[in-house]
Design a protein that fits this description.
8 helices, mainly alpha
């Protein structure tokens, strides 16, 4: 059991206010200007990561909502023209794919009904839809490169501040010719604080990047499903076109 006088001394020390320069704000102000620059860069990196996170949450939410709406209309449509009419007011990637397929179907009215022309139309539609998909994914991935860079470089930037702060601590020992903690503590404190800020910037950036990658992969799978529905409708309409042209000659 602790002695009452010793316990009272610890309680008094804990209740006493921090001496100047020992709180976090004081550490930042008393740090070397190089370490202050490192801290500012890392704080800016953390702010950029959080800003990208908020932007991407809103962007992905809207993208998934529009894609879900288009997928429902494609499922309910019996042919490509009706699907395009139902999505006339939409501008998401799935509706753009449907319009491209419809344009190719409409252009076939100028050509004979040979299977080669229908196959060529399907190939052109596939190429156009691939480009639409690539553009949509590129827009969703915009900014993720910053997250990867922040997650990869922030610990090393913080480590640079750590090394510089410890170097200052050793220089203080050399100047004062004493190993008192009061001499080396400020340098060590700012060094450790730079490390903490580096981790604070890197860890969220890595987590946000991984979560963003998973969401983009999920969006790509759903967009591929919508593209498959459009190709199914296009193939059905091409078969109807061939049957309509062949029926009179069969009679």
């Amino acid at each position: 059991m602790a002695h009452p006088a010793f316990a009272q001394s610890i309680a008094t020390d804990l209740a006493a206010p921090h001496p100047p320069g020992t709180d976090l704000f004081g550490i930042i102000l008393s740090a070397h200007w190089v370490v202050q620059v490192v801290m500012a860069i890392l704080a800016l990196a953390a702010f950029v990561a959080l800003t990208i996170m908020v932007q991407k949450i809103a962007e992905l939410t809207l993208a998934f909502r529009a894609l879900r709406r288009s997928a429902q209309k494609l499922t309910a449509a019996s042919d490509l023209p009706s699907a395009v009419r139902s999505m006339a007011a939409q501008r998401d990637p799935a509706s753009m794919m449907a319009r491209v397929a419809h344009d190719e179907l409409s252009a076939l009215s100028e050509f004979p009904t040979e299977p080669a022309y229908a196959h060529a139309a399907q190939q052109r539609t596939r190429i156009a839809m691939d480009r639409i998909e690539a553009g949509a994914l590129a827009r969703l991935r915009a900014g993720s490169g910053f997250l990867a860079s922040i997650g990869a470089t922030s610990p090393f930037i913080g480590l640079f501040g750590t090394v510089f702060g410890i170097m200052n601590a050793f220089l203080a020992i050399a100047e004062t010719k004493t190993t008192s903690l009061a001499v080396v503590a400020p340098g060590i404190a700012e060094a450790l604080f730079a490390t903490a800020i580096g981790l604070l910037a890197a860890i969220p950036a890595v987590l946000i990047y991984n979560a963003l990658s998973r969401q983009i992969s999920a969006f790509r799978r759903r967009l591929a499903d919508a593209a498959a529905q459009i190709e199914r409708l296009l193939s059905r309409d091409l078969d109807r076109r061939s049957a309509a042209r062949l029926t009179p000659s069969a009679g």
